[in-house]
């Protein structure tokens, strides 16, 4: 079954690439706006040989990794504190519900005002968007703690942090890993968006330069790179999730199938 799914996926990708080659060549769309797949592939290969591309890729990955790490750390710490400190979650519920729906892109003027086109502008947007993915999942995970296990831990005299380590954390970890996987994708989106709009160094800024200079094949090649990055990040996040939750029933069932 797995081999069949892989073959079907490869066939679908091949059909998509063939369609991208044929559509501009037969005149359905203008080549000036959408070059054939072969021309994009050639531009992609040229980019791989350019040191400027690798520098931009490094800037993008730096902003993504730092922002994601800060968001994950802050989301876990804040989520646990809100869950274990009495009445703190109720006191902050309205504030969280007010801040969480604010789109990160709405903070772009603030980021530019505070930090200009520096890396800190990118981090502000990435951390803000990714933080909520982690925090909400941590709160959901804590809600899912078995009350019997919680009371048993109390009856054995475990302190607050011992209960967090041995009861709350194992129950919340599947939710946390889901949050990390979602946050990883969101962090990449906001990193590229910030670079594209603000002009911070990275792939987004390089795409904007290619677009403004009418280097259309190069622009599409860079867009393909961002798509490949998203794919690799998603695959990597799923691999980490499976490894971290190897003991969990859902992962054991997935492996068994």
What attributes characterize this protein structure?
single chain; 257 residues; 11 helices; globular
Tell me what you see in this structure:
Residues 252-257 have low confidence and may be disordered. The chain is built from 11 helices and no strands. The chain has helices at residues 2-25, 37-48, 51-84, 88-99, 108-115, 119-143, 147-155, 160-198, 203-212, 216-244, 249-256. The radius of gyration is 22 Å and the shape is globular. Helices cover 82% and strands 0% of the residues. The protein has 257 residues and is mainly alpha-helical. Helix 3 (51-84) runs parallel beside helix 6 and helix 3 (51-84) packs across helix 9 (203-212).
SSE diagram, text form:
Elements: H1 2-25, H2 37-48, H3 51-84, H4 88-99, H5 108-115, H6 119-143, H7 147-155, H8 160-198, H9 203-212, H10 216-244, H11 249-256
Helix pairs in contact: 2-10, 3-6, 3-8, 3-9, 5-6, 6-8, 8-9, 8-10, 9-10
Overall strand count:
0
Number of helices: 11
Largest sheet: none
Helix content: over 70%
SSE string: HHHHHHHHHHH
Decide which structural class fits the backbone.
mainly alpha
């Amino acid at each position: 079954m797995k081999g069949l799914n892989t073959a079907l996926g490869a066939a679908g990708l091949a059909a998509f690439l063939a369609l991208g080659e044929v559509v501009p060549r037969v005149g359905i769309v203008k080549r000036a706006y959408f070059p054939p797949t072969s021309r994009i592939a050639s531009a992609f290969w040229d980019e791989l040989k350019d040191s400027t591309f690798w520098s931009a890729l490094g800037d993008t990955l730096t902003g993504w990794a730092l922002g994601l790490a800060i968001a994950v750390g802050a989301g876990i710490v804040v989520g646990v504190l809100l869950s274990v400190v009495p009445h703190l979650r109720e006191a902050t519920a309205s504030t969280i519900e007010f801040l969480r729906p604010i789109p990160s892109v709405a903070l772009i003027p603030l980021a530019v005002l505070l930090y200009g086109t520096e890396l800190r502008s990118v981090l502000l947007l990435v951390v803000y968007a990714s933080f909520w993915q982690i925090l909400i999942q941590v709160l959901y995970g804590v809600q899912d703690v078995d009350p019997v296990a919680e009371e048993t831990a109390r009856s054995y005299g475990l302190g607050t942090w011992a209960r967090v380590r041995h009861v709350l954390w194992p129950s919340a970890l599947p939710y946390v890993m889901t949050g990390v996987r979602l946050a990883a994708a969101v962090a990449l989106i906001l990193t590229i968006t910030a670079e594209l709009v603000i002009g911070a160094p990275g792939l987004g800024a390089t795409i904007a330069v290619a677009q403004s200079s009418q280097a259309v094949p190069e622009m599409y090649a860079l867009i393909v790179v961002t798509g490949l990055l998203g794919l690799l990040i998603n695959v990597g996040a799923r691999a980490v999730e499976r490894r971290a939750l190897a003991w969990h029933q859902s992962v054991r069932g997935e492996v068994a199938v």
